[in-house]
Amino acid sequence: MKLKFSKDFIFGTATSSYQIEGAINEGGRTPSIWDTFSETPGKVLNGDTGAIACDHYHRYEEDIEIIKSLGVDSYRFSIAWPRIFPKDGEYNAEGMEFYKNLSMKLVEAGIKPFVTLYHWDMPQWAHEKGGWVSRDSVQWFKEFAEKCFEELDEYVGMWITHNEPWCAALLGYHQGVHAPGHTNMEEALKAAHHIMLSHGEAVKLYKEEMKLKKSIGITLNLSPVYGASDSQNDQLAANNLDGYVNRWFLDPILKGNYPMDMMNLYSKYVHSYDFIKEGDLELIAYPSDFLGINFYNRQLVEFHSASDFLFKSAYSDYPKSGMGWDISPKEFKELIYRLREEYTDLPIYITENGAAFDDVLEEDGTVHDKDRVSYVEQHLTAVAELNNEGHNIAGYYLWSLLDNFEWAFGYEKRFGITYVDFDTQKRYLKDSAKRYTEIVKAREI
Length: 445
Ligand code: GBH
Prior knowledge:
Bound molecules: ligand GBH
Family: Belongs to the glycosyl hydrolase 1 family.
Radius of gyration: 21 Å
Binding site for substrate: 19, 119, 163, 296, 399, 406-407
Active site: 164 (proton donor), 352 (nucleophile)
GO cellular component, one term: cytosol
Shape: globular
Number of helices: 15
Keywords: Carbohydrate metabolism, Cellulose degradation, Glycosidase, Hydrolase, Polysaccharide degradation
């Protein structure tokens, strides 16, 4: 039986600035923390950097043609902060020009720009003044946001303040696998707090001060977590990972408080929680218009007494993507049920979903990525089913338009529905792009 998508359901595809743009020294841009990090030996696989990436900065018109050919309603991209503020307090109109042209051309093509302000490329100057660990970052971000709102709001369909604060804060400052590569839990919690605070400030600025009217929200990476068994210990492990990845962000943003069990668990790593100031939680929970979710996989954990928060990954017999992540569309649905029950009635956008696999470019320029086709079909079916059940998923953005710089994995992991030959910068539509186009055009699966 075919499942239908409503007329106003938004189909899209997504990218982010550092992962595709390249042109790191052009248009007045200064380095971001990801330039610094990826240039540090040992941080990124094969020593890859985003210096050239997909050369999208020069090829964006060609890339818009690809987006057009997919028939999607919307395109999600992010703005490189160091193009807009290459130095503290110094606005760079030339940097903004790029995003204006991109947005205008998208609008002309009938494609709605969905713009993320922060997808992890903090200017190096801001990092040197303390980065997200410093409370001043809230102010720096607000200035950046204000300029973007001023210059781009007329073209933009929807705004996302932050992409995946968990990654920026915890992968960046606790696990050290993302820029800036620190391993300090207290720093990570401060960074998370300031990122969420800057989200609240930006939404408030947008609505209350600037009185602008498009939709604005935040995107979280959410992973439904399960214990390997029903034992109390494994369930505790699951609760802790759920707190670490999901609740630490969901609770402040949607309920205006931090989860107490996690505050207790973290307290031995934190000198004091006085970086959480009076009024902060209210601001963090400032009402936005939607919740964005990036969904990739569920996680299965077991109790592990020797690890900081008492969990470790457990063996799972699920089929895996090329990242080794469980393919878990059923758990995606469970995540949405939980959000509806415990957290929010806001429209939900799936702002990213997709998978890496080992793609092979055939001599005739085709890529038969049947595993990705199946991954996308399974998750889109889940979205359609959820909507039939009345859960109001307002849109779906396939990650990613192009193979790109996959952070710590460099160019080795390909998430694109378009294959990029990084030697020639030639693009080739994979079978998944063709299948997605069919679904988008038929608006049914
Ligand atoms: C997103 O982050 C990013 O927004 C995007 O830039 C990136 O290219 C894309 O995903 C693909 O990676 O513990 O092994 O089960 C992904 C966030 C967080 C998703 C960790 C997978 C669990 C991995 N990821 N999560 S595992």
